[in-house]
Design goal:
single chain, alpha+beta, Porin, 13-stranded antiparallel beta sheet, two-stranded antiparallel sheet, 15 strands, 38% strand, globular
Length: 274
């Protein structure tokens, strides 16, 4: 993890998530090799972190002085594209008493569509965290300096293989301060990254589709955030639901091993890059 004065940067800062000149409802993330791996295609979990971060900011601004927590997130993208950067252009499409829903087209640096996200958040009574939402728009997004080689993002986050007791393929991560949100729980985008990594590992290990290439990407994912991840480590395991000649769809289950709670469910579709 990038460090400042001996401290790890928060994951959103490490990834350079920041304001985009397209407007206050937009945020951008650059896509250097460390967030793409060998495929050259950005990890879907990284794009989901952009959606969750920007969506959380917009939802918070809509409900201040109350606060929000993400309850569900869906993201789809074109797995063949290799953008230099991705911008989310968010809009609050519904503000209810107990929930807020945001829609977010994703575009590249030339404005061409690369994907789409939608998420909902539950509205909770405000507290010490009120008033912090707009800080995302106070910092510009940045790009890694030329010649600087950073470790792969999964290594930075600390995602490691960790199969379940029933032999289901899995991955897990510890909860660290730099991976948490302002409430001290695991950032919803980090859980999405963990689910993305697990889905790809499961598809590769399944052996159900002999033609699947070594370079795989998750092209769509829907997550239901059931409970907060507070203790850790957090383990995600996968079960294959369907396989075709071109893709594998898996069910993903997240558990906080420290508390023993089921904290999230998701489906993800993994396919080879072209």
């Amino acid at each position: 993890m990038t460090e400042v004065e001996g401290k790890r940067l928060h994951i959103a800062n490490h990834l350079g998530v920041g304001a985009d000149p397209r407007g206050e409802g937009a945020a951008r993330i650059h896509c250097p090799p460390d967030v793409c791996g060998s495929t050259g295609v950005p990890h879907l979990g990284v794009l989901a972190l952009l959606v969750d971060t920007l969506g959380g900011v917009l939802a918070s601004l809509a409900v201040e002085p109350d606060i929000v927590v993400t309850t569900d997130l869906t993201i789809v993208r074109d797995p063949t594209l290799r953008p230099r950067s991705v911008t989310g252009i968010g809009e609050v499409v519904r503000r209810g008493r107990s929930s807020v829903t945001m829609e977010m087209p994703l575009v590249d640096d030339e404005g061409h569509p690369v994907g789409w996200g939608v998420m909902s958040s539950a509205v909770l009574p405000g507290g010490e965290q009120s008033g912090r939402a707009g800080r995302l728009f106070e910092r510009p997004g940045y790009e890694t300096e030329a010649g600087v080689v950073r470790p792969p993002i999964h290594e930075v986050v600390g995602i490691e293989p960790a199969d379940g007791p029933d032999d289901r393929v899995g991955c897990q991560v510890e909860i660290r301060r730099d991976l948490a949100n302002s409430l001290g729980i695991l950032h919803g985008g980090v859980l999405a990254m963990l689910m993305d990594a697990t889905a790809i590992r499961s598809a590769r290990a399944s052996g159900l589709v002999p033609g699947l290439a070594a370079d795989l990407v998750t092209e769509e994912m829907t997550i239901r955030y059931i409970a907060a991840n507070r203790v850790g480590p957090i383990r995600v395991t996968a079960s294959v639901l369907a396989a075709s000649a071109h893709a594998v769809t898996s069910r993903l289950e997240a558990r906080d091993l420290g508390s023993g709670r089921l904290t999230g469910l998701a489906t993800a579709r993994v396919a080879p890059t072209s």
